[in-house]
Amino acid sequence: AEGARAAAGTSGRRWVLAALAAAAAVVVAVIVIWRLSPPAGDGAAQGGLRLSSRALHGFRAGADRKGVGEGKLVYLGGRRMIRNKSADAELSLSRLARVRRAGADVALLAGTVVASVKRRVAAAVHFRVSGGQIEVVGTRFTVWQGEGEGSVTLHEGRVRFRAGDGRTRALAAGQTLRWPLPGAASSTASSARAAKRASSSPRSQPTTTKRIASKQAPARARARKQLESLLRRIERMRSQGRYRDAAALLGRELPRVRDHRSRERLSYELGVLLETVAASSARACAHWRRHGTRYPRGRYQREGSARLSRCAR
Fold first, then answer.
1. Domains of the chain: total
2. Do 94 and 162 share a domain, yes or no?
3. Per-residue pLDDT for 77 more than 60?
4. Are residues 54 and 132 in the same domain?
5. Which of 8, 32, 118, 152 is most buried per CB count within 10 Å?
């Protein structure tokens, strides 16, 4: 009898503890949902996507805070995510990404965003970037924004890029577009920089310097053409879904590239490709570590650090 009473007492205590734990969980859930709920009037409907300045900034939660409610900021795979109430659209932000509303558009200031938008609401969703804006046509894509440059990689569906000067580019699945687009604006800026250098330099240069420059020019032109040819091959493989082949090609060609800036760019592209190949996550993380060591102050340093931080989770 005493054993039965002891067992009953133990069972009762367990029930009380379980009830207290459940109550605490409810309180925590209520607090989390309250903190994530956008205040009334704060946020704008963007083609079914509700953005809240309160939701976009200052949210810190563990990876276990998944699924706290539609229309709220939630965690998915360690990333911040915004989704609309009917799940027509959602944004997954890297931890270093900075986003703000820009009228009827979404402006990506820096970092990476993975967007998924259903076709029926896509026409109303635009992303502003430094080179123009991305018009969504029902798709899933990744956008990266750096300092005055960036890229969009299309995973499925279609997007249309409209540059600041009005030019448009349509992307098919597997393709990547980078901005600023080559053209008159960049040529004008380059000409202005060249003119400034010419005006600040001595009028007469030593003959030896001129000879060296004339010898180096053809070599630089060849290197530039080879780089452009390689990038075209990579883009063609991406458009065909041959990500593994594209990564293998980049891995072979990267050591042969001498120009430091070109190597950094190709190294970044290789890391993105390795992430795309599902079986290469460990290789991708190892690559981002090497990339950070080789290019500690490079153009892609911030984005590379963000990708490396995801490896640690």
1. 2
2. yes
3. no
4. yes
5. 152
Distance CA 150, CA 158 (A): 18
**Domain with 122 in it:** 44-179
Give percent of the chain above pLDDT 70: 44
* Residue at 191 is within a domain: no
Give how far Cα 10 sits from Cα of 1, 20, 24, 144, 262, Å. 14, 15, 21, 57, 69
CA-to-CA separations, 302 to 99, 146, 297, 298, in angstroms, rounded = 15, 8, 9, 9
Q: Could you read off the pLDDT of 78-93 as tens digits, one per residue? A: 344 454 444 455 666 6
Write down the residue that tokens 């360690």 correspond to: 78
Domain CATH code at residue 301: 1.25.40
User: In the numeric block, which tokens belong to residue 149?
Assistant: 């440059």
Q: Which residues, listed in sequence order, are joined to residue 91 by a DSSP beta bridge?
A: 82, 115
DSSP letters for 99-140: EEEETTEEEEEEEEEEEEE-HHHHTT-EEEETTEEEEEEEEE
Structure tokens at 198: 């010419």
133 within domain boundaries? yes
Other beta carbons within 10 Å of 279: 8
Instruction: Number of helices (H) and strands (E) in the chain: give both, helices first.
Output: 9, 12
CA separation for the pair 138, 140 (Å, rounded): 7
How is residue 71 written in tokens? 């229309």
In a domain, 24, yes or no: no
Q: Are residues 151 and 244 in the same domain?
A: no
CATH of the domain at 156: 2.60.120
Peptide bond into 180 cis (omega under 30): yes
Whether 144 and 236 share a structural domain: no
DSSP state of 38: P
Residue 267 in any domain: the answer is yes
- Look at residue 27 in the predicted model and tell me its pLDDT: 30
Taking the whole predicted model, whether its pTM rises above 0.90 is answered as: no
Distance CA 251, CA 246 (A): 9
- Identify the pLDDT of residue 180: 84
Same domain, 164 and 59: yes
